[in-house]
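Below is a filled-in request sheet from our internal design queue. Each sheet records the structural input a requester submitted and the sequence that came back. We keep these sheets so that new team members can see what a complete request looks like end to end.

REQUESTER: design group, bay 2
PRIORITY: normal
MODE: inverse folding
CHAIN LENGTH: 326
BACKBONE (tokenized):
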């Protein structure tokens, strides 16, 4: 009986310590004078660390002592997510390289780059149907290619065509959402599809899609966590807490790929093998937006401007977050 009572007391004390440490850790978040934020609205896409973080509830627990409520919103791709961010409907989101460039170039944009995932060039590709006679990028000339406009697939298509000495005006462009593009691809309405995971893995495993080229050697395919300048200025320490929690999620996914695939399958309803394939070609890890990343983004912005896809030149470096020192 004494041993049992001691164990109960020990458990209670341990729980109290954990709660207390959690509160101290969280309350160190906002610096003195930083405005409180009652609700943090986060936009995410299908899969990836943010969906794992949402499913785990870890961020809600981390921010509970600060009385910050989390509201999650799923988007089919980066462009509509960033439209919501620019419209003030989100405080934080995640999107690919090209989408963030377009969003930065939007009128009255306040976009700020917070951090970047380690680039994963193997996670997006130019696909053709399994029975297609196309065997090279050069053969896309005159063909109909599906892609999501203003997304990382848009930029990959530009670079892939460039490798084949082709321009966008030499193909028939089908700007479609990932869901609509998959339907068109499956029905044979398009000749090729430029897409990212998990849609890429789904097309391979369930439609037998063949890869004409992935992004290796063409595009770094960086993914960014973004916010807006007003939020970054008023809630810098809160954003640091969120990025720190994303880093921990990334580390867990890298160390536990099978468990991560299962969690993503449970959260999305997509079969486990799709997520296993997707995760197998990704390296997870959050890093600051360094000069190399800025230069890569600037190159994308310059190319889009030269093609008339952006109304004005952008300076990517001006939109990079400088977090408050701890």
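RETURNED SEQUENCE:
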């Amino acid at each position: 009986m004494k041993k049992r009572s001691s164990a109960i007391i020990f458990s209670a004390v341990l729980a109290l310590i954990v709660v207390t440490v959690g509160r101290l850790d969280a309350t160190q978040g906002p610096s003195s004078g930083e405005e409180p934020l009652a609700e943090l609205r986060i936009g995410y896409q299908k899969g990836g660390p943010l969906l794992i973080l949402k499913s785990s509830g870890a961020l809600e627990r981390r921010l509970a002592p600060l009385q910050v409520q989390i509201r999650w919103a799923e988007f089919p791709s980066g462009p509509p997510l960033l439209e919501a961010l620019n419209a003030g409907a989100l405080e934080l989101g995640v999107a690919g390289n090209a989408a963030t460039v377009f969003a930065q170039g939007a009128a009255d944009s306040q976009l700020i780059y917070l951090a970047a995932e380690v680039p994963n060039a193997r996670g997006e590709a130019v696909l053709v149907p399994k029975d297609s006679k196309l065997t090279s990028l050069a053969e896309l000339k005159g063909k109909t290619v599906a892609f999501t406009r203003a997304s990382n697939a848009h930029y990959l298509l530009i670079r892939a065509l460039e490798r084949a000495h082709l321009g966008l005006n030499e193909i028939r462009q089908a700007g479609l959402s990932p869901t609509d593009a998959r339907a068109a691809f499956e029905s044979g309405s398009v000749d090729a599809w430029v897409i990212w995971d998990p849609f890429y893995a789904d097309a391979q495993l369930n439609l037998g899609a063949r890869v004409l080229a992935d992004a290796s050697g063409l595009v770094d395919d960086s993914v960014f966590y973004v916010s807006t300048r007003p939020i970054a200025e008023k809630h810098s320490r809160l954003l640091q807490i969120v990025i720190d929690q994303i880093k921990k999620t990334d580390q867990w996914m890298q160390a536990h790929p099978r468990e991560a695939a299962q969690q993503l399958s449970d959260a999305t309803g997509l079969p486990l093998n799709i997520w296993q394939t997707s995760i197998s070609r990704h390296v997870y890890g959050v890093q600051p937006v360094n000069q190399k990343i800025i230069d890569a983004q600037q190159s994308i912005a310059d190319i889009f401007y030269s093609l008339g896809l952006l109304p004005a030149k952008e300076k990517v470096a001006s939109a990079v977050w400088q977090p408050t020192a701890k």
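SHEET NOTES:
- Residues 1-32 have pLDDT under 50 and may be disordered.
- The chain has two domains: 9-119+222-310, 121-214.
FILED BY: M.R.
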